[in-house]
Design goal:
Blueprint: E1 4-6, H1 9-24, E2 42-44
Antiparallel strand pairs: 1-2
Length: 55
Protein backbone atom coordinates (compact mmCIF):
# COMPACT_ATOMS: atom_id res chain seq x y z
CA UNK A 1 0.00 0.00 0.00
CA UNK A 2 1.15 3.52 -0.81
CA UNK A 3 1.65 6.30 1.70
CA UNK A 4 -0.98 8.94 0.98
CA UNK A 5 -2.56 12.17 2.17
CA UNK A 6 -6.14 11.87 3.39
CA UNK A 7 -8.36 14.84 2.47
CA UNK A 8 -11.98 15.66 3.38
CA UNK A 9 -13.29 14.97 -0.14
CA UNK A 10 -16.96 15.77 0.56
CA UNK A 11 -16.09 19.06 2.23
CA UNK A 12 -13.66 19.88 -0.59
CA UNK A 13 -16.45 19.34 -3.13
CA UNK A 14 -19.01 21.41 -1.27
CA UNK A 15 -16.55 24.29 -0.81
CA UNK A 16 -15.70 24.16 -4.52
CA UNK A 17 -19.40 24.44 -5.37
CA UNK A 18 -19.80 27.42 -3.03
CA UNK A 19 -16.88 29.21 -4.69
CA UNK A 20 -18.18 28.40 -8.18
CA UNK A 21 -21.67 29.68 -7.34
CA UNK A 22 -20.27 32.92 -5.93
CA UNK A 23 -18.37 33.48 -9.18
CA UNK A 24 -21.44 32.65 -11.30
CA UNK A 25 -23.65 34.99 -9.25
CA UNK A 26 -21.43 37.84 -10.27
CA UNK A 27 -17.98 39.14 -9.55
CA UNK A 28 -17.49 42.10 -7.28
CA UNK A 29 -16.76 45.54 -8.68
CA UNK A 30 -13.06 44.75 -8.40
CA UNK A 31 -13.34 41.63 -10.57
CA UNK A 32 -13.43 37.97 -9.71
CA UNK A 33 -12.94 37.24 -6.02
CA UNK A 34 -9.80 35.53 -4.81
CA UNK A 35 -10.46 32.51 -2.63
CA UNK A 36 -8.00 30.77 -0.34
CA UNK A 37 -9.43 27.84 1.51
CA UNK A 38 -7.33 25.64 3.78
CA UNK A 39 -8.75 22.28 4.78
CA UNK A 40 -7.22 19.79 7.20
CA UNK A 41 -5.25 16.86 5.83
CA UNK A 42 -3.72 13.76 7.38
CA UNK A 43 -0.59 11.89 6.33
CA UNK A 44 -1.35 8.16 6.21
CA UNK A 45 1.93 6.27 6.39
CA UNK A 46 1.78 2.83 4.86
CA UNK A 47 4.26 0.27 3.58
CA UNK A 48 5.69 2.51 0.85
CA UNK A 49 7.30 4.85 3.39
CA UNK A 50 10.47 4.01 5.22
CA UNK A 51 14.16 3.45 4.75
CA UNK A 52 15.40 1.19 2.00
CA UNK A 53 16.20 -2.39 2.89
CA UNK A 54 19.93 -3.03 3.20
CA UNK A 55 21.39 -5.62 0.84
Amino acid sequence: PLTTVRQPIERLGSMAIEVLLSVIEGPSEEGAPVHRIVLPTELVIRASCGSALSR
